[in-house]
C-alpha cells in the first residue's frame, strides 16, 4: 500500500526558473540548473538537512536547460540556451568545466549519456540531434548530426541496454536512431507518429522493452522500440 507523499526538503538558492534536476547515480547528491545560468550541487541527507555542496557558475552565458550525470557518476553534462554543452568533473578535487561542446546553431534543449558512457547525445531548437563519441582526456568527437525532425527537438534518451537513441520533437513525432553495423553511420530507423501535438518528453522502462511519451495533446503513449539488429 502506497503512503501519502509529502515534501521532506526544500532546496532554495536559484533565482528564476529551475529547469531541470538530476540525481547522482549513488543517490547522495542532487544537481539542479536554471534560468540564472548556474548549476547547483546539493549534498542530500534525510530530512530537511540537505546543503549546497558547490555552485557552478562559469560554464554558460544563458539559461541552463538540462543536466545529466554519466552512469559512472564521474561526469555531469549541462545543456544551455547559449547553444553549448559543458562537461564537468571533479578530477582536480573540485568540480570544473573541462570540455565545451559547440556546433548547435540554437538552444540546446536536452543531453543524455549512453549506458556505457562512450556516447553523449544532444538536441536543439535547430531541429538536429547530435551524437558525440567520448574519448579519454576529456576529448569529444561528433560522430553524427541527425536531421530527421522538421522542428525543434525537445528531448533525447538512450535505451538502457542497447545503443538505440530516441528523440521527441515539436513536429509531433518521436524518432529512433541506430548505428548501421556495415558502415558505422547513424541513421533514423523508425518514426512514431501517435501524437497530434508537441512531444515534450519520453522515457524507456528499465528493460528497454517499452517507451513512454508525453505530449501537448494531453496524452501519453507507450510503444515497443525495435531490437538492436544488424542492418
Number of helices: 0
Shape estimate: globular
Radius of gyration: 18 Å
> How would you describe the oligomerization state of the chains in this entry?
single chain
Sequence of strands across the biggest β-sheet:
1-2-3-4
Question: How many distinct beta strands?
Answer: 19
The proportion of residues in beta strands is: over 45%
Helical content (DSSP H or I, runs of 4+): under 10%
- Uncertain segments are none
Give the helices and strands as they follow along the chain.
EEEEEEEEEEEEEEEEEEE
- Give the helix/strand class: mainly beta
Mean pLDDT: 91
Characterize the biggest β-sheet: 4 strands, antiparallel
Distance between the termini: 46 Å
Could you explain the architecture of this structure?
It is a single chain. The protein is mostly beta strands and 231 residues long. 0% of the residues lie in helices and 49% in strands. The protein has no helices and 19 strands. The protein has strands at residues 18-23, 29-34, 39-43, 51-56, 64-69, 75-80, 84-89, 96-102, 108-113, 119-124, 129-135, 139-146, 153-158, 165-169, 174-179, 186-192, 199-204, 211-215, 220-223. It has a four-stranded antiparallel β-sheet, with no helix packed on it. β9 (108-113) and β10 (119-124) form a beta hairpin. The model has no long low-confidence stretch (mean pLDDT 91).
Task: Pick out its properties.
single chain; about 230 residues; mainly beta; four-stranded antiparallel sheet; 19 strands; globular
Question: What is this structure, in a nutshell?
Answer:
The protein has 231 residues and is mostly beta strands. It contains no helices and 19 strands.
Amino acid at each position: 500500500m502506497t503512503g501519502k507523499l509529502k515534501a521532506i526538503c526544500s532546496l532554495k538558492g536559484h533565482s528564476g526558473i529551475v529547469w531541470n534536476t538530476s540525481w547522482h547515480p549513488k543517490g547522495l547528491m542532487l544537481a539542479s540548473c536554471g534560468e540564472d545560468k548556474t548549476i547547483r550541487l546539493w549534498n542530500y541527507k534525510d530530512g530537511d538537512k540537505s546543503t549546497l555542496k558547490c555552485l557552478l557558475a562559469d560554464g554558460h552565458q544563458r539559461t541552463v536547460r538540462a543536466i545529466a550525470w554519466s552512469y559512472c557518476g564521474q561526469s555531469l553534462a549541462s545543456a544551455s540556451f547559449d547553444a553549448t554543452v559543458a562537461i564537468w568533473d571533479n578530477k582536480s578535487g573540485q568540480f570544473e568545466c573541462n570540455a565545451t561542446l559547440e556546433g548547435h546553431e540554437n538552444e540546446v534543449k536536452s543531453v543524455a549519456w549512453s549506458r556505457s558512457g562512450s556516447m553523449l547525445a544532444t538536441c536543439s531548437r535547430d531541429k538536429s540531434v547530435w551524437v558525440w563519441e567520448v574519448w579519454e582526456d576529456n576529448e569529444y568527437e561528433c560522430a553524427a548530426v541527425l536531421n530527421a525532425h522538421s522542428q525543434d527537438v525537445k528531448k533525447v534518451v538512450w535505451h538502457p541496454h542497447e545503443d538505440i537513441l530516441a528523440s521527441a520533437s515539436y513536429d509531433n513525432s518521436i524518432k529512433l536512431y541506430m548505428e548501421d553495423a556495415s558502415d558505422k553511420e547513424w541513421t533514423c530507423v523508425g518514426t512514431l507518429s501517435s501524437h497530434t501535438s508537441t512531444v515534450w518528453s519520453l522515457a524507456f522502462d528499465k528493460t528497454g522493452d517499452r517507451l513512454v511519451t508525453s505530449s501537448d495533446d494531453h496524452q501519453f503513449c507507450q510503444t515497443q522500440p525495435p531490437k538492436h539488429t544488424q542492418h
